[in-house]
Design brief:
The protein is an alpha/beta fold. 34% of the residues lie in helices and 26% in strands.
Length: 230
């Protein structure tokens, strides 16, 4: 059974969240008071509704208490976010996740008993900082203070060589988890223009690196940084 998620607020964050969840097989209900925003997504999610989420009676009619998760992704409307959250609590929504707009907003949400908070700008900044520190790294997933999994675009010196010839474990102490072969790059603003890649599975010693390949590596950050700096 697919996860049923309502996304309230279809700004850039809410829109892309709704589209990504749909791609992952979730049943998504997208909600916004802007008719234009709802029309832009209505053919790409399970349900899309024009509605002022600060009105409790209107929310109750949608049956949101039966959803697995309701994400309040409202951006700049501080008051609207709080009123929406209070209304969701009143109608008995089991799991509410909130986008945080400011430190004051975060404090008030915590006082309301909301524990699942999203800070997309802070998370994006942290991810980008990792990319800057690790050079050609496209994505980084920190597992501890020492170890990370990263997606690294194959350096030119790697192209045409086999996994065996690279000797990543011997030279850097790094493990090659898999290789992603890009077929279509993503747009910068991803309104459904997602990256398409073929995952090659567990590489064999004979697997040959091609230009544009993305190497998924696991190891110490110090060794990952050494590899990217060479």
């Amino acid at each position: 059974m697919s996860l049923r998620v309502a996304v309230i607020g279809l700004g850039h964050f809410g829109l892309n969240l709704a589209l990504r969840l749909t791609e992952e097989g979730c049943e998504v209900l997208a909600i916004d008071r802007s008719e234009e925003k709802v029309e832009a997504i209505q053919d790409r999610v399970a349900y899309a509704v024009v509605l002022d989420s600060s009105e409790q009676r209107a929310l109750r009619r949608l049956g949101l208490q039966d959803m697995d998760v309701v994400v309040v992704a409202i951006g700049e409307n501080f008051e609207g976010s709080l009123l929406t959250t209070a209304s969701l609590q009143e109608i008995g929504v089991r799991r509410i996740v909130n986008r945080v707009i400011s430190p004051v907003h975060e404090r008030l949400l915590r006082l309301m008993g909301i524990r699942e908070l999203i800070l997309p700008e802070a998370e994006a900044a942290a991810a980008f900082a990792n990319r800057l520190l690790l050079g050609r790294v496209r994505k980084a997933f920190e597992l501890s203070t020492e170890y990370s999994i990263v997606e690294l675009e194959a350096p030119k010196a790697f192209v045409g060589k086999t996994v065996y010839e690279l000797r990543l474990r011997e030279r850097y102490g790094l493990n090659l988890v898999t290789i992603k072969r890009i077929r279509q790059p993503a747009g910068l603003i991803s309104r459904g223009e997602e990256e398409h890649a073929v995952v090659l599975g567990v590489p064999t010693p004979e697997t040959r690196i091609e230009q544009g390949d993305i190497l998924v590596l696991f190891g110490r950050e110090s060794e990952l940084r050494r590899l990217t700096e060479e």
